Amino acid sequence: VRFTGSTGRFETLIDVADQPRGMRYQLAIRDRSGELQAISHARGADSFPASVRRDLPPPAELRAAKGLTCLTSRWTSDELRELGLQHGTVNIVLSGLVRLQPAPGFDPTEIRGRVVYVHRDRIAALDHGVRVLTRAEAVVAGILLIPTRASGKSPLMHPEADVAGTYAMPDLTTAAAVELYVATLDVLADRYCRMDGRFGRIDHWIVHNEVDYGWQWTNMGQQPMELFMDHYARSLRLVDASMRSVNPHARVFISLTHRWNVPDDQPWRTYAPRAMLRWLIRASKVEGDFPWGIAYHPYPQSLWNADTWNDTHLTQDDDTPLITMANLEVLDRFARSDAARMASGQVRPVILSEQGFHAAEDDEAALEIQSAALLYAWQQLRKCPSILAFDYHRVSDHRDEGGLRLGLRGLPNRENPRGRPKPAWDIFRAIGTPAEAEQRSRYESFWRVEERASAGAL
Question: Which tens digits make up the pLDDT trace of 1-54?
């Protein structure tokens, strides 16, 4: 501890390598009765020891990069490279991936001086997806998920999580649960931040899914937003600590829907993304900043209507209820605002990590609108310098998305295991190439009419 002059101010450095991961620190004094009284906010670790850090080169610089979600093993790295892919996501189911004790099917792995046990088949499948994207020279984002309906209740699942949700918040209420969560994160950091890139590389870590719609996508039971966010911020910091202590270029992201400023329609179950981001910004200022970013999902106001330029439940200012592709600049302005920037003054990174346009294979009009919507999306993206990438959801239609047909290709079948290409598939291929201009001249009339009308030209 170093005292400064006669002001009573002091500085102290704490080696977090010797402390439990995720520990927060707080100043306190003893009152006359001997009780401790807090005199500061809790503070998270600002930096990490160099003992495990690897001298990885930075990932490729991105700006409105072309990305995809839900890529399957049917795609090769060469095919993705030819598609012009620069970014992509992989789902990482944490439940049952790592154990602290031996079990059949789990291989021993030494991580940071201790032995843990990794599910052999699960990690091999994950390796394949990460390697394919990495070899395609794409920057990879891993989405960390804890399903609620896995066989038997996962020890990683928050004890108050309701099985009404698809995924759960991690349990950070006991030392044993935190130990398992941290061990799982450390396995991922060690494996996907290697100097030799043997298993592929992940630089972006999306922490859980659509947390503003927590009841469905990151369930922690019914909670006031402040309690939900305090727990979520701890999870975010734990992921940051595991990943950035190994890979200095790693970044964590909060995952949010398009419901920017929608009042709670399910009190203590859903929250407005703007309010959550403001909470996280305040917490970062008083508890120590770290380089988190935003993973936003700007679907059209109705997921069934791809003509997002016709969205009406929005404005062009910060009070807008929704942020869709039609008012994406609201999100960009927020990210670049002085209040939202990191302590260093840098703009927090933004990725659009999930968003697609519905079009059934047998609906010719809808297929045309889907194609136009893709081109419109990249027009809007290029106006927003904070946005690194757009991951289109998804490559092929899926039978279990409530009837939505968001794919660039149709439903996979025996004749077409990848699904029959929709017109949007060729549009996606053209984006970022000389062929984009020709496609744009064909489709821009879909949204230009509305733009001229709103400007009073018609």
Answer: 444 555 666 677 777 666 666 677 778 888 888 888 887 788 777 677 666 788
Query: Mean of the pLDDT values across residues 93-111?
Result: 96
Burial of 234 (C-beta count, 10 Å sphere; 0-12/13-18/19+): middle
Cα–Cα distance list, 349 to 109, 124, 305, 382 (Å): 33, 30, 28, 15
Burial (Cβ within 10 Å: 0-12, 13-18, ≥19) of residue 411? middle
Burial of 156 (0-12, 13-18, 19+ CB in 10 A): buried
Closest CA to 64 of 32, 86, 91, 35: 86
**Digit-coded pLDDT (tens) for 331-364:** 999 999 999 999 999 999 999 999 999 999 999 9
Report the candidate in 250, 253, 175, 255 with the shortest Cα–Cα distance to residue 210: 255
83/77 Cα distance (integer angstroms): 10
Alpha-carbon gap, residue 113 to 432, rounded angstroms = 46
Write down the pTM of the prediction: 0.92
The separation between CA 206 and the C-alpha centre of its own chain, rounded to angstroms, equals 3
H/E stretch holding 447 = helix 445-454
Q: Which of these, 258, 147, 130, 150, lies nearest to 208 by C-alpha position?
A: 147
Nearest-angstrom CA–CA distance, 252 and 238 = 10
Q: Which residues contact 364 (CB under 8 A, 6 or more apart)?
A: none
Pairing state of beta strands 106-111 and 114-119? antiparallel
**DSSP codes of every residue in 95-111:** TTTEESS--TTEEEEEE
Q: Contact 357/308 with Cβ under 8 angstroms?
A: yes
The closest alpha carbon to 289, from 19, 12, 39, 45, belongs to: 45
Nearest of 90, 151, 161 to residue 170 by alpha carbon: 161
Do the Cβ atoms of 255 and 208 come closer than 8 Å? yes
Between CA 50 and CA 248 the distance in angstroms is: 10
**Residue 350, CA distances (Å) to 91, 233, 384 in order:** 19, 18, 10
Q: How far apart are CA 361 and CA 358, in angstroms?
A: 10
What tokens appear for 193 in the block?
Answer: 């931040």
Question: Do the bridges between strand 139-145 and strand 87-93 make them parallel or antiparallel, or are there none, so unpaired?
Answer: parallel
Q: What is the rounded distance in angstroms from the CA atom of residue 424 to the CA atom of residue 260?
A: 28
